[in-house]
Recover the amino acids of this structure.
């Protein structure tokens, strides 16, 4: 009588394969997490550049229409939450919505120079930077509260 030889994987072979897969996962997962963080950071920086450009274009548009942007010292830091309108310390509203995409969202801040002629920097975050309402904040308040978040800033050198 011929005995049929059973074909299949032994328990040892399965354990070896699982060990190899686990080792590969242990190597690849942290790498993929790093790529995800890097992609989020690049997105934040790109969004900050959009805020920077939008604020600069809004300022240019205001100056073209002979509107003055008067700021007192360093108080020209503005932050919005899912809004593209910020208000200066003199009450003038800066609307950057027509210079941004329709789907632009997030939390942002930008600083206009004391003379009201240029944008010094802009930041963007996917989470609240400091508050969920439009307001005027110091540069330190925005940057300190954004340290632990996915934040981008512009200009970036």
């Amino acid at each position: 009588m011929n005995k049929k030889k059973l074909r299949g994987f032994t328990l040892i072979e399965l354990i070896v394969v699982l060990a190899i897969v686990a080792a590969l996962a242990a190597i690849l997962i942290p790498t993929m997490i790093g790529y995800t963080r890097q992609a989020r950071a690049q997105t934040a920086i790109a969004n900050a550049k959009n805020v920077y450009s939008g604020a600069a274009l809004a300022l240019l548009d205001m100056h073209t229409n002979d509107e003055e942007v008067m700021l007192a010292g360093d108080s020209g830091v503005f932050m919005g939450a899912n809004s593209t309108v910020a208000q200066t310390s003199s009450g003038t509203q800066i609307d950057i919505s027509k210079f941004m995409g329709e789907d632009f969202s997030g939390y942002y801040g930008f600083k206009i120079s004391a003379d009201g002629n240029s944008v010094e920097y802009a930041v963007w975050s996917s989470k609240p930077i400091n508050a969920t309402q439009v307001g005027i904040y110091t540069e330190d308040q925005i940057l300190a509260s954004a340290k632990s978040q996915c934040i981008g800033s512009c200009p970036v050198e």
